[in-house]
């Protein structure tokens, strides 16, 4: 049997856990309701997933609050907390094929990507923050000699995390790991079409020794479970990754409840600026292609706009065509596949609606551009040229494998175009002039700027944006600060 058929058969044989996970146990929703989890690639019913609502959220939050107040995790010796998180990461590594399959079946992404990227990255994040627990120091302020002023980090309490469907395990880990490392408890509401891997992740945490209640998972629909979590009076912070429209609602829910902290990681319309002095256009083309066609463009930081000086455009486009000649698009269960279909019919139809705009204002398809219908969720890698910087194609997040090209006469105009959207998540500059790269990078309004590369990311550096891309920051040691509050203790020594 081929590897593709083997993975497909394993997907058919899956019997995933689909109940709510509270205080170390899988339980039915209080209402008894479920929703259908449908596999994108073949419309097959994977599982009936428990549909949590306000009652289930309350049970999960109270479980997390109880264990936080008791201090069994919050007050544990740092070296013991570290050991538990490292065991958790070890169990993730041991069960990576199961986790990868759950992730792939739910989202439609290639099994090879889930195995080589999603699960290893999530595992590294859990272990990295575990290692950080006993290596993070606090401060003594320069108080007068007759006083001692200590500045310590205090955990916030119960953290609510709402995570999206495009990278369920990775993005959950970005929020879970630093929050738990700081001594908080966490309730996760996964996206309704990608709950399975997070439910399994919670069970592995208990097996590793994490006290029950520190990590609870409540799958459910956004208006019921997500809203209830964001409104809950015992949730100290809501960490959300998703659309700007829902992000605005999260801010409202926080204001209408206990004014909890809100961290938002939202969308992007990231630009890659290709200047005439870029000396390796083949490398640039490869990075450009991976930046938009990886995960079928369903990435917040995807390099969905290229802003090109005219002197290099023809050669860049030629290299893009050459790259795609060997770019493998096909079955998600073939480990060699580099791009598969979109996550759902709704997402496919959204991308189709943007393809309908092509040609209305002089735009031109260079390659791809074919819409799909029916059960076909595959949109071919697409490049659209002659796009105006103010058009919907250049301003709105398509979230599919669609790259738009905008002409620029010089670097100054390129920077103005790059900054000319409401999104400010990421950007890149391709130039051989290091001084120019430094200068232009400072002028770009983006949370991450790459030079002569794109999407080089690791847990060691923060990720986040400005404006419509949100105000939160995930990853790096700085994330520990976002899941804690500074506390001053002033002791009179007289």
Characterise this structure:
The chain has 494 residues and is of the alpha/beta class. The protein has helices at residues 3-13, 54-70, 78-94, 96-107, 111-132, 168-181, 196-208, 222-231, 244-256, 281-293, 310-324, 345-355, 392-395, 411-418, 434-443, 478-482, and strands at 20-22, 25-27, 34-38, 45-50, 139-140, 147-155, 158-162, 185-189, 215-217, 237-241, 261-265, 271-274, 305-309, 364-367, 382-385, 402-408, 423-424, 426-430, 448-451, 466-467, 484-492. The protein folds into two domains: 3-266 and 470-488, Aldehyde Dehydrogenase, Chain A, domain 1, CATH 3.40.605.10; 271-458, Aldehyde Dehydrogenase, Chain A, domain 2. Strands 14-15-16-13-12-18-19 form a seven-stranded mixed beta sheet, sandwiched between helices. Strands 9-8-7-10-11 form a five-stranded parallel beta sheet, sandwiched between helices. The protein has a three-stranded antiparallel beta sheet with strand order 5-6-21. The chain starts with a helix and ends with a strand.
List keywords for this structure.
single chain; 494 residues; alpha/beta; Aldehyde Dehydrogenase, Chain A, domain 1; Aldehyde Dehydrogenase, Chain A, domain 2; 2 domains; 21 strands; 20% strand; globular
């Amino acid at each position: 049997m081929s590897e593709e058929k083997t993975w497909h058969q394993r997907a058919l044989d899956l019997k995933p856990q689909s109940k709510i996970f509270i205080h170390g146990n899988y339980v039915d929703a209080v209402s008894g309701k479920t929703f259908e989890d449908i596999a994108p690639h073949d419309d097959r019913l994977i599982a009936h997933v428990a549909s949590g609502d306000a009652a289930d959220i309350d049970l999960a939050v109270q479980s997390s609050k109880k264990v936080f107040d008791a201090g069994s995790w919050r007050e544990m010796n740092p070296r013991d907390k570290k050991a538990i998180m490292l065991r958790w990461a070890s169990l993730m590594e041991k069960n990576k094929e199961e986790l990868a399959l759950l992730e792939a079946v739910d989202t439609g992404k290639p099994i090879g990507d889930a195995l080589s990227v999603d699960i290893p990255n999530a595992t590294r994040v859990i272990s990295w923050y575990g290692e950080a627990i006993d290596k993070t120091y606090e401060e003594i302020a320069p108080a007068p000699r007759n006083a001692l002023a200590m500045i310590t980090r205090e955990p916030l309490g119960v953290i609510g995390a709402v995570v999206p469907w495009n990278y369920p395990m990775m993005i959950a880990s970005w929020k879970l790991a630093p929050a738990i490392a700081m001594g908080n408890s966490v309730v996760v509401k996964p996206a309704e079409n990608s709950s399975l891997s997070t439910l399994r992740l919670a069970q592995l945490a208990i097996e590793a020794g994490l006290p029950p209640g520190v990590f609870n998972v409540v799958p459910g629909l956004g208006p019921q479970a997500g809203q209830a979590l964001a409104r809950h009076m015992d949730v100290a912070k809501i960490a959300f990754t998703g659309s700007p429209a829902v992000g605005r609602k999260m801010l409202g829910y926080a204001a209408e409840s206990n004014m909890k902290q809100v961290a938002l990681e939202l969308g992007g319309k990231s630009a890659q600026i290709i200047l005439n002095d870029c000396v390796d256009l083949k490398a640039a083309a490869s990075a450009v292609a991976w930046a938009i066609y990886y995960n079928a463009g369903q990435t917040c930081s995807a390099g969905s706009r290229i802003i090109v000086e005219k002197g290099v455009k023809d050669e860049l486009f030629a290299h893009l065509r050459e790259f795609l000649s060997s770019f493998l698009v096909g079955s998600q269960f073939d480990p060699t596949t580099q791009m598969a279909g979109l996550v759902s019919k709704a997402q496919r139809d959204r991308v189709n609606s943007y393809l309908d705009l092509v040609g209305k204002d002089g735009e031109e398809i260079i390659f791809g551009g074919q819409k799909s219908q029916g059960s076909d969720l595959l949109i071919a890698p697409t490049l659209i040229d002659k796009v105006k910087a103010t058009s919907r194609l250049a301003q709105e997040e398509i979230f599919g494998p669609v790259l738009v090209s905008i002409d620029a006469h010089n670097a100054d105009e390129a920077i103005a175009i790059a900054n000319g959207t409401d999104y400010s998540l990421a950007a890149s500059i391709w130039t051989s002039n290091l001084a120019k790269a430094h200068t232009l990078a400072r002028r770009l309004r983006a949370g991450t700027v790459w030079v002569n590369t794109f999407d080089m990311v690791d847990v060691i550096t923060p990720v986040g944006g400005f404006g419509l891309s949100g105000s939160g920051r995930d990853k790096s040691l700085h994330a520990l600060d976002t899941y804690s509050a500074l506390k001053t203790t002033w002791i009179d020594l007289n």
